[in-house]
Design a protein that fits this description.
Length: 323
């Protein structure tokens, strides 16, 4: 058995970002995994959230936001590197975890029991997990996924790694990264806040020059023509790429700015409040879209004008005080 951290799925305490009071219970698989892995390693992942402020509407989706690797190394000494897969995947995982390195790997949710009710034994879809523990002999895997830490075993282990001669159709090997934990002094609270603010200034400078909600409203208005005749699966995919992406992301932005305010940083609370309202508005609009599609009735998009104003308020304050 190889493991990085001595964790047990039954008593793992997840980060408050994945608490029951959140507007968006999940963000995206990569961000959620790194939040929990960073938390389990004893760091505060909120300090690494400035990047959420630079997302944009990308024409047919909002930015799939991911922690910049350079930021994770700057703050926590977490050096994330791609791993070339030239042997059976299971061999790489056992070796890297044995070296004390968590492994970020794309697996098939069809064989991940924590996705019961959504994908487990229902749908083949890739998702990123962070492997912390692997016992090949007893076929047990401990991994971070979504909002927490889980374990799988037995037939699920055999299937997800295609052991015992199993071959599932797969065009390419999964994308895999290792997390090398560099030894460096842990910053105290004041230093962590200062380092985080340096990242914030960089990300504020990278924020969209034009309000992304104007472009999104224009595209959304066009998309509604065909969405009204789409089935529920298309709705889920569209919503994930748009409303959930910016809604969940701006809730993380609000969490970050409110954390800064708690550390005594002036002018952080108000933009955090504005971005939290965007997150709430996105969740409400997602429900309204689902109802409109089900009933084949028009959808009012004035909420996006309100979100555009809230975005302007937040960004103008941040550019004034953190730009």
């Amino acid at each position: 058995m190889k493991q990085v951290l001595p964790l047990a799925a039954g008593n793992y305490q997840r980060h408050a970002i994945h608490g029951g009071d959140r507007i968006w219970a999940e963000t995206n698989c990569y961000a959620d995994v790194l939040i929990e892995l960073t938390h389990a390693l004893g760091f505060e992942p909120i300090a690494a959230l400035p990047f959420t402020l630079a997302i944009d509407f990308e024409g047919d989706q909002w930015t799939f936001f991911k922690f910049p690797h350079a930021d994770m190394q700057t703050l926590f000494g977490m050096d994330i590197q791609e791993l070339a897969i030239w042997r059976p995947l299971i061999d790489h995982l056992e070796e890297q975890v044995g070296l004390g390195r968590p492994v970020l790997v794309e697996l098939d949710s069809y064989f991940l029991p924590d996705t019961a009710g959504s994908a487990y034994q229902l749908e083949h879809t890739k998702t990123t997990v962070a492997i912390n523990r692997i016992d090949v002999k007893n076929r047990v895997l401990g991994y971070f996924h979504s909002q927490s830490y889980f374990e799988l075993s037995g037939d699920d282990f055999t299937q997800v790694f295609q052991l015992d001669g199993l071959v599932h159709p797969r065009m390419l090997p999964p994308y895999v990264e290792i997390v090398k934990l560099r030894e460096q002094p842990r910053p105290g609270a004041p230093e962590l806040v200062e380092r985080s603010q340096q990242l914030l200034r960089r990300q504020v400078a990278l924020a969209p020059r034009n309000n992304p909600f104007h472009a999104f409203k224009e595209k959304f208005s066009v998309d509604l023509d065909w969405l009204m005749s789409a089935d529920i699966e298309v709705f889920h995919k569209y919503s994930f790429a748009t409303l959930r992406q910016f809604g969940a992301c701006y809730e993380l932005s609000a969490t970050y700015l409110h954390w800064l305010a708690q550390q005594g940083i002036a002018h952080a609370q108000a933009p955090g409040d504005a971005l939290l309202q965007i997150a709430q508005g996105a969740k409400a609009l997602q429900f309204q879209l689902a109802r409109a599609i089900a009933r084949k009735k028009p959808l009012e998009l004035s909420a996006l004008d309100t979100m555009a104003e809230q975005w302007e308020q937040a960004m103008s304050t941040l550019q004034k005080h953190q730009g």
